[in-house]
Automatic annotation (TrEMBL):
Pathway: tRNA modification; wybutosine-tRNA(Phe) biosynthesis. CDD domains: Radical_SAM. Its EC number is 4.1.3.44. Residues 89-112, 316-340 are annotated as: Disordered. This is S-adenosyl-L-methionine-dependent tRNA 4-demethylwyosine synthase.
Length: 765
């Protein structure tokens, strides 16, 4: 037997070990792991440090002051030695609450009235008055301009006399201003400058930009994320309203209703900083006088604020309760907001909002303070767009429109009268073969979403971004517009010069120009309406303003589809069309994309209306880019018509803005060249010098080297009735007559030329 050392194993055991060592190792490892896991589940994870000794004190910003998370005290012991005692402080509340949803309860701690912080420091600060105005027909815009000039004169006089606290005013049109820049918090653009808001607006009981503005104020007030008085950084505000007592004699009947509303919301948003009471003036009687009084009030208020006296105590306008009763919170509507603010307070404690400790908290709104199953309010009955009793109705009928139902109109145009007398048709005859005396001009929507500077509607048009009115059925409109049109034609019977054969022909409408005023595709049943026209073989030319892409995308076949291209870039379009839609440029571009997609389905036209000083200079390249984007079949270029209304003059439009025909021609030549440079196949096809209008056409409409811009109307109806897909190339008409071609003037030699002395530049749009 071999000798075994103390740690030596017998050979048998070693053999056994070599034979079974792997299963033995594996089972031992498995056993140990099972024991470890068992201990873990029974006692939890063993702590890395079980001693109660605290770690190093860490700084914290509780209450905005650096404090340790433990208290450290030195305590003398009986032995005479000293001991260090650590006491752990509770963790800051923040980390416990930050991430957990909270059910909100409690009451808002109300700010005492009349104590809105007066942030103005007369030692270092200056005041800049900001004038905000809105205007549809121009009265308020003009008044706001005069007000700015009066205040600035007065301020300059004061500056000369040594008072440098007041800075000159800046004016903003509420149609274009970014509300978020001015009506969520007070501006902070200039250092050591505080702002005073002067708001001057008309009131309209139709849909206008003022509704959007009021909605913004209201939403800001109700937005739980925003402080209740987010505009309290202003040093004051005041509002003036223009109204018309003839139509709205009392406040109950709506006199200056929107100014009253704006004043109310601003009182809430500023924490009751009304510096001078709401002024109201009747535009037809005492408007100027009331405005003068209000101006004196503003001046007094500015002097007081600049002198550090604030808004005054205990008098109307001071923000005192006496003046502000009507602005008390509505009992229910703000309940939730109050509680949320209360929550903010309890959570934030003394920590300032902008300190590092402030953090938003998740709030479970699903369980919070639901109104106890309040019955849903009954929907308000829909209004008529143009009620018979409204000033719009009176104004439009005065301008010669026949109002059909509550939102449609028809008007006999001057070219129809001219054609009846054999004095020539409009450019539509020259380019497309439409005889003006067979043409009816109408619209199923008098409302649109622009306020174009050259609009014929004299500022009385209803405007809106969405259809909010009672809808008339298409049959009613169709019958109504035909009746209105025939009635007006019949009235021409006795007019000297009317040709009998043309009069007889005119009693059968062959064409409908849906381009009168307003936006035809705004009407929810536009497809049904055009189907009725087509059923009676009345062709349709529909003009839209490139603001309603969704409606454009779903539009059925029309004989010719126009999009107004009033400018070549965003800024210029904003200035000239004054659109209500804030995303007007995006809408415009989407419409161009849709037109491009539809170019083999619809006969598409870009209509450019040139306004000198607005949209001609240096815009040729921009227009060429738009043509490249939309690839229309045709581009019609026209000079604007000067209509001499207050709207146009308030927009700065005069006869000087009407281009001469030679200028229109020069523009068209430049545009043609710009299109060629882009490799686009267009050419100048025809002209109608009489109405300052030139036609560029895609070479798709050139056959055997000749322009064929006219339409085969019979073929159009055949194709439509076949129910099969078709496009503009399928109903191209005869070649454009010689007299209509570019360079030949475009006047039908069979008609009699009448010299309209002194009005040569007046054209239709
Ligand atoms: C369609 C329309 C609706 C109007 N609605 C009201 C109204 O509800 N209350 C009022 O006081 N004045 C109303 N007016 C009168 C205008 O507020 C008044 O003419 C004002 O001066 C127009 O200002 P603007 O020219 O700056 O647009 C209305 C006028 C029109 C044409
Ligand atoms: S789109 Fe037509 S109707 Fe509307 S404002 Fe412009 S010109 Fe007038």
């Amino acid at each position: 037997m071999p000798h075994l050392g103390i740690f030596e194993l017998p050979d048998e055991l070693l053999d056994l070990w070599h034979q079974y060592r792997i299963p033995i190792i594996l089972s031992t490892f498995g056993l140990l792991t099972a024991v470890r896991l068992g201990l873990h589940f029974k006692y939890g994870r063993p702590k890395a440090m079980v001693s109660s000794m605290p770690g190093s004190p860490r700084p914290s910003l509780v209450d905005g002051v650096e404090k340790p998370l433990v208290d450290i005290k030195i305590r003398p012991l009986e032995s005479g030695e000293k001991a260090v005692v650590y006491t752990e402080k509770p963790k800051p509340v923040k980390s416990a609450r930050k991430h957990s949803p909270k059910r909100v309860t409690g009451k808002k701690v109300r700010r005492p009235k009349g104590t809105g912080q007066m942030l103005f420091d007369p030692e270092v600060d200056s005041i800049r008055p900001l004038i905000f105005y809105s205007s549809l027909a121009g009265t308020t815009e003009k008044a706001a301009g005069k007000l700015a000039s009066d205040i600035n004169h007065w301020i300059r006089d004061r500056q000369t006399a040594g008072d440098s606290k007041l800075l000159e005013t800046q004016s903003h049109d509420l149609s274009y201003v970014e509300y978020d820049d001015f009506f969520i918090t007070a501006p902070k653009d200039e250092p050591n400058t505080k702002y005073f808001y002067i708001v001057i607006i008309p009131s309209y009981d139709i849909d206008t930009v003022l509704n959007t503005f009021l909605e913004h104020l209201q939403e800001t007030h109700h937005d739980f994320r925003i402080d209740t008085a987010p505009l309290s950084g202003l040093v004051g505000y005041t509002v003036f309203g223009f109204g018309d007592r003839e139509g709205w004699s009392t406040e109950e009947e709506g006199f200056c209703s929107q100014a009253i509303e704006v004043d109310k919301w601003l009182a809430k948003l500023t924490g009751r900083k009304r510096a001078f009471p709401l002024g109201m003036g009747d535009v037809k009687t005492d408007g100027a006088e009331r405005l003068g009084e209000w101006l004196s009030g503003i001046q007094d208020a500015l002097v007081d604020i600049a002198a550090g006296k604030g808004l005054g105590e205990g008098v109307a306008g001071s923000g005192n309760a006496v003046a502000s009763d009507e602005e008390e919170e509505e009992p229910n509507s703000k309940a939730s907001l109050d509680d949320v603010e209360d929550l903010g307070k309890s959570y934030r404690g003394p920590v300032e909002k902008d300190s590092e400790e402030w953090a938003p908290m998740a709030i479970d709104f699903t369980t919070f303070n639901k109104p106890a199953s309040a019955p849903a309010p009954a929907p308000a009955p829909l209004k008529e767009m143009v009620p018979k009793s409204s000033p719009t109705y009176a104004s439009l009928t005065k301008q010669g429109y026949t109002i059909v139902g509550s939102h449609s109109g028809v008007k006999i145009c001057r070219w129809t009268k001219s054609a009846l007398r054999g004095r020539g048709s409009c450019y539509k005859f020259t380019f497309y073969g439409i005889k003006s005396h067979l043409c009816m001009e109408s619209t199923p929507s008098l409302s649109c979403s622009n306020k174009c500077v050259f609009c014929w509607r004299h500022g009385t048009n209803p405007v809106g971004t969405t259809w909010r009115w009672k809808v008339d059925p298409p049959e009613v409109i169709f019958e109504g517009v035909k009746e209105g049109h025939y009635k007006k034609i019949k009235m021409m019977k006795g007019v000297p010069g009317v040709r009998a054969e043309r009069f007889a022909e005119a009693m059968r409408i062959r064409h409908c120009a849906l381009s009168l005023v307003g936006e035809p595709i705004f009407y929810p049943y536009i497809n049904e309406f055009t189907a009725m026209l087509h059923k009676e073989h009345i062709s349709s030319f529909l003009v839209c303003n490139a603001q309603h892409p969704d409606q454009l995308a779903t539009l059925n076949h029309v004989t010719q589809l126009y999009v107004s291209i009033d400018a070549s870039n965003k800024e210029s379009l904003r200035k000239i069309d004054r659109p209500l839609h804030r995303d007007f440029w995006e809408r415009f571009n989407r419409c161009l994309d849709i037109l491009r997609e539809k170019r083999f389905e619809q006969r598409t036209v870009f209509r450019l209306t040139l306004v000198k000083g607005f949209n001609i200079d240096e815009e040729v390249e921009g227009y060429a880019d738009l043509v490249a984007k939309g690839l229309p079949c045709f581009v019609e270029v026209k000079g604007v018509t000067y209509c001499g209304t207050s709207t146009s003059s308030a927009a700065g439009l005069t006869m000087q803005n009407v281009p001469f025909y030679a200028e229109v021609q020069a523009f068209v030549v430049a545009l043609d060249a710009a299109l060629a440079r882009r490799g686009l196949s267009y050419g100048i096809a025809a002209e109608h010098a009489h109405s300052c209008c030139v036609l560029l056409a895609s070479t798709r409409f050139r056959r055997d080297g000749k322009w064929c811009t006219r339409i085969d109307y019979g073929r159009f109806f055949e194709l439509l009735e076949s129910g099969k897909p078709f496009g503009p190339d399928d109903y191209v008409g005869d070649e454009t007559p010689e007299w209509a071609l570019w360079g030949n003037g475009g006047f039908d030699p069979r008609d009699e030329r009448v010299d309209r002395k002194g009005k040569k530049k007046i054209v239709e749009i």
